[in-house]
Specification:
Radius of gyration: 20 Å
Largest sheet: 7 strands, mixed
Number of helices: 10
CATH architecture of the largest domain: Alpha-Beta Complex
Number of domains: 2
CATH superfamily of the largest domain: Medium-chain alcohol dehydrogenases, catalytic domain
Bound molecules: NADP nicotinamide-adenine-dinucleotide phosphate
Mean pLDDT: 96
Low-confidence stretches: none
Shape: globular
Length: 327
């Protein structure tokens, strides 16, 4: 029986529960693919699952919902994916076996081709961030190319993905970051106007920059802080998509009523097969046309997963893209 190195947590806890051990290498069943992982994405949700704040889970538990690597085995009858293919994967939180491992089982629908133009670490940065950005922009906000977009928290993995794809469609993108490096980065990735969300006057600056029309679409990474500002700055028929939130929000519903603003939550794993096909196709199109270029902030070896979890939560010095584990 073949074995592999993997992280399987035995109970909820702090980053110290992320220990590498030797476990049995899984075998794909119909509808599944075994991927040899070269790089695994570290997403904020992994830290919530690890800490036990994202609902009950069975143990031992594998972590990691996106990755890039090489197809190691396919179930009988699979025609479109073959052993040796370079791929990236994304199945959202609640993975079959978890991508923090040398090999991971993933559903066939979650396997996409990875061109040679992107590294494995860039491939590991595609799944959850880009598909969440695309689900938010296309499925939830029904964004149109001529519209104004505020990416409230643009310097992280999801925000940079949103800036790249929305600017490629022709949307007028405004982005926020909390550091000078973050501001430069979002500008280089499609935000035409940038604002520091730690600057005490930034809301007034945003208001002046967008003018009377307001924002047609707002992607919100920290809704508990910002929802009140978002409903105020939204346009008539504005759509605010709550991607991240860490507590209760205070906002004035009058702004929603007066401008017929919609606030929608997004949760990537709720994608139907048809929605998944639409956003997956748009992502592959963006990769092939070259405007999807994931930005890697930091790489950690698998054994340093505890440090990677600290980094994704604390972002000392501000976010600058995606954190990944390498194998
Ligand atoms: N709903 C879903 O399906 C889904 C999927 C993926 C992610 N998420 C959630 O979406 C959020 C972003 O994910 P991510 O991977 O991009 O995380 P990330 O890489 O850690 O980025 C976090 C972003 O939030 C910004 N931020 C910090 N304080 C802020 C504030 N007061 N106002 C506005 N922005 C602020 C950060 O900017 P600076 O560091 O520059 O200050 C950074 O741009 C997380 O909460 C994550 O859990 C949800």
């Amino acid at each position: 029986m073949a074995s592999m190195r993997a992280i399987r947590i035995q109970g909820f806890g702090g980053p110290e529960v992320l220990k590498v051990s030797s476990v049995e290498r899984p075998t794909p069943k119909p509808g599944q693919v075994l991927v040899q992982i070269k790089s695994a994405g570290v997403n904020p949700v992994d830290t919530y699952i690890r800490a036990g704040t994202f609902g009950p889970r069975p143990f031992p538990l594998g972590l990691g919902g996106d990755a890039a690597g090489i197809v190691a085995a396919v179930a009988d009858g699979e025609k479109n994916i073959k052993v040796g293919d370079r791929v990236f994967t994304c199945e959202g939180p609640g993975p079959l076996t978890g991508t923090y491992a040398e090999y991971a089982l993933v559903p066939t629908r979650a396997v996409f081709p990875l061109p040679d133009s992107l590294t494995f670490s860039q491939g590991a940065a595609l799944g959850i961030p880009y598909l969440t950005a695309l689900r938010s922009l296309i499925i939830k906000a029904k964004s149109k190319p001529h519209e104004t977009l505020l990416v409230h928290g643009a310097s992280g993995a999801v925000g940079l993905a949103a800036c790249q794809v929305a600017s490629s469609w022709g949307m007028k993108v405004f982005g926020t970051a909390g550091t000078d490096d973050g501001l430069q980065l979002i500008k280089a990735n499609g935000a035409g106007a940038v604002f520091n969300h730690r600057d005490k006057n930034y809301v007034q600056k945003l208001r002046e920059a967008v003018g009377e029309h307001g924002f047609d679409v707002i992607l919100e990474m920290v809704a508990n802080h910002n929802l009140g500002v978002d409903v105020e700055l939204a346009a008539v028929d504005g759509r605010i998509v709550v991607i991240g939130s860490h507590g209760e929000a205070k906002f004035e519903p009058f702004h929603m009523m007066g401008k017929e603003v919609t606030v929608a939550g997004v949760m990537l794993p709720h994608s139907t097969d048809e929605e998944w096909r639409i956003i997956g196709a748009e992502l592959v199109k963006g990769i092939n046309s070259g405007h999807v270029r994931p930005v890697i902030d930091q790489e950690f070896p698998l054994e340093k997963a505890p440090e990677a979890h600290e980094a994704v939560i604390q972002h000392t010095g501000g976010s600058k893209g995606k954190i990944v584990l390498t194998l």
